[in-house]
Design a protein that fits this description.
7-stranded mixed sheet, 8-stranded mixed sheet, 21 strands, alpha/beta, Rossmann fold, 22 helices, Restriction Endonuclease
């Protein structure tokens, strides 16, 4: 039996001429070895591996990196290839959160002439393994199995020192014996100091690129989450690239510390998030690190992996890349498949390597949970609803006289944000407006980048033909500007073709402002799932296949609000009270903290 196994392995090796994973013989080799160890070719978390994953109920999983190396070529590139494999070991260990053993199978083939003079294949394997076996800093593999193809397979097995029953090195007599030894020698994953995780969570570091909300809803969620954690008794710090005295005072007022790194000339704000933050208390070490989405999540992962390896990491999901990029596609236009796939994979990798994943709202929680099906290791996903944050109380303000219809969002994403649908609907409302009725409807769009203003205006000019007045307003990091926009609006529209959650509309609800929101949003899904009475005009479809019907639905909903503004406001206040009865930040924070895995 051993001879047939060896012969099959040598035959596969002889067909392997290239090392890339896409090579057919290499994949056949992976499948063959996976069958022999009772594992499977893995769904790779990182581009570098592992190749094989073996799971067992009574022991930690084993992630195996497979390398096929030509000895003659390898001797000329020894240091570079060893460095490459060591980097792969670190990435695999990180991706599995130190919850799996990490092993390597290295298969050497090619002319013996490639071996240095005076050095036999056994010495060569020992030299290789001495570099690859895990060091005290955790870099390297728990065990390394080196096979040399000759007339028969020759094996050497090496393992990191431990209290196990097996020696640090041995010479298995056959392929099957060698693989059995590899499987039996499955040490527990690298043991880190557990002082931080053994106690209850006391310190949380949230990674962001600003304190205020100049860049959108992620900043708002991060800030409000930090405030809620502090209110729950967690020592909370928010890492930002730089902080103004005003931001520091505002954070201090809500018991949150703003921390920054020591700047390095030439680094951008985002790149500065790769540096270690400077804390007022030098002994301050986070127990928990929180990152947001594909833009900020990598920096939270870097903080954990480089500086605070004892901390757990939570990854918040704010978008569904596949649905969002699809919503940006214009019929007959270019495909956004490449961007969609790359962003989806990045979100998966960040989620899979976290200790806990949080989807903001039910739509995003469901999408990331589905995207992680069939991938190892498994990560728990929870749905978290932000608490309501009223920027002002509409019940204390008079109803605006002017018929301002407001949209808040990135207007350069014209198609995905459904601005064309809103404009067409406004055109229909304006055309039906009685000539003897004052205060014709005006469209207000807040969130137009300076370099996109001309393009957005041109597209609106084409649709509205001068029959509807509109005003474009730029991005602002001054919260008062958006608060005043809301206070002065008769209704806020969120006509997005896809919206992972919909924070702008959520904040309008929190303030008691009438809203009309896309049925294709996470917020709409939450309202439907909660069986909340949203009144006939609060949710409307933006289905692309029924664009004309969608325009009619949105026009009718806008018209109802403008015809009876006091009734609409009363309904909006009732909606706010219903949502407030279901969602609040203290409950959301408690749900987050209790969902974290045990130390």
């Amino acid at each position: 039996m051993a001879e047939s196994v060896d012969q099959q392995l040598i035959s596969l090796l002889e067909g392997t001429r290239a090392e890339p994973r896409a090579a057919g013989p290499h994949l056949a080799l992976e499948r063959y070895l996976a069958e022999l160890v009772g594992g499977q070719r893995s769904q790779r978390v990182w581009d570098s591996g592992p190749d094989i994953l073996v799971g067992r109920a009574d022991a930690p999983s084993l992630a195996i990196e497979l390398k096929v190396l030509n000895r003659q070529f390898f001797r000329k590139n020894f240091r570079n290839r060893v460095s490459e494999m060591l980097a792969a070991s670190v990435q695999i260990r990180r991706s599995f959160r130190d919850e799996a053993g990490v092993a390597a199978i290295v298969l050497l083939h090619g002319d013996v002439d490639g071996v240095s003079a005076g050095q036999n294949p056994g010495q060569f394997a020992s030299e290789l393994a001495s570099r690859l076996v895990r060091a005290d800093d955790g870099v390297g593999f728990d065990s390394v199995l080196v096979g040399t193809a000759a007339a028969a397979m020759e094996w050497q097995f090496f393992a990191a020192p431990s209290d196990g029953d097996f020696p640090a090195s041995s010479h298995p007599r056959s392929t099957q014996e060698a693989l059995n030894l590899l499987m039996k020698r499955r040490p527990l994953p690298l043991q880190r100091a557990t002082s931080a995780r053994a106690r209850r969570l006391h310190r949380c570091l949230l990674v962001a690129d600003e304190w205020r909300s100049g860049r959108g809803g992620i900043s708002t969620v991060n800030r409000e989450l930090a405030i809620a954690l502090a209110a729950a008794g967690v020592d909370s710090a928010v890492m930002v690239p730089q902080a103004s005295p005003e931001d520091i005072r505002a954070a201090s007022d809500v018991d949150v510390a703003l921390v920054t790194p020591a700047r390095v000339p030439g680094l951008t704000d985002r790149e500065a998030l790769l540096l270690r933050p400077v804390f007022a208390d030098q002994s301050w070490i986070p127990d928990l690190i929180i990152g947001h989405g594909r833009l900020l999540g990598p920096y939270a992962a870097a903080q954990q992996q480089q500086f605070f390896p004892e901390a757990m990491r939570v990854h918040f999901v704010h978008t569904d890349a596949e649905q969002l990029e699809s919503a940006k596609e214009v019929p007959g236009g270019e495909s956004r498949m490449s961007d969609s796939d790359a962003r989806r994979r990045l979100e998966q990798q960040l989620a899979q390597s976290a200790h806990l994943v949080v989807g903001v709202g039910p739509l995003l929680a469901a999408s990331i949970r589905d995207d992680l099906i069939g991938r190892e290791p498994t990560t728990r996903v929870i749905c978290l609803m932000p608490g309501l944050r009223a920027t002002f109380d509409v019940s204390t303000a008079h109803t605006p006289v002017r018929n301002h219809v407001l949209i808040v969002g990135r207007a350069d994403d014209f198609h995905s944000k459904g601005i064309d649908i809103a404009a067409e609907a406004m055109l229909k409302v304006a055309d039906a407006w009685p000539t003897n009725k004052s205060h014709r409807p005006v469209l207000i769009i807040r969130g137009v980048p300076d370099d996109a203003a001309t393009d957005v205006k041109a597209r609106l000019d084409v649709i509205l033909e001068g029959r509807v007045k509109f005003h474009l307003r730029p991005f602002t990091d001054t919260e008062t500007d958006v608060t005043q926009d809301l206070a002065q609006a008769r209704v806020l529209l969120m006509p997005s073709r896809h919206e992972g959650f919909g924070l702008a509309a959520y904040e309008a609800i929190a303030s008691g402002v009438p809203v009309i929101i896309s049925a294709e949003s996470g917020l709409a899904e939450f309202l439907r799932d909660s069986a909340i009475d949203t009144s006939p005009s609060s949710i409307a479809s933006t289905n692309d296949s029924l664009t004309r019907l969608a325009v009619d639905v949105w026009a009718d909903a806008i018209q109802r609000v403008l015809d009876a503004p006091d009734v609409a406001r009363a309904q909006a206040i009732a909606l706010r009270d219903s949502v407030a009865g279901l969602v609040n930040w203290p409950d959301s924070v408690l749900k987050l903290l209790t969902a974290l895995p045990s130390p």
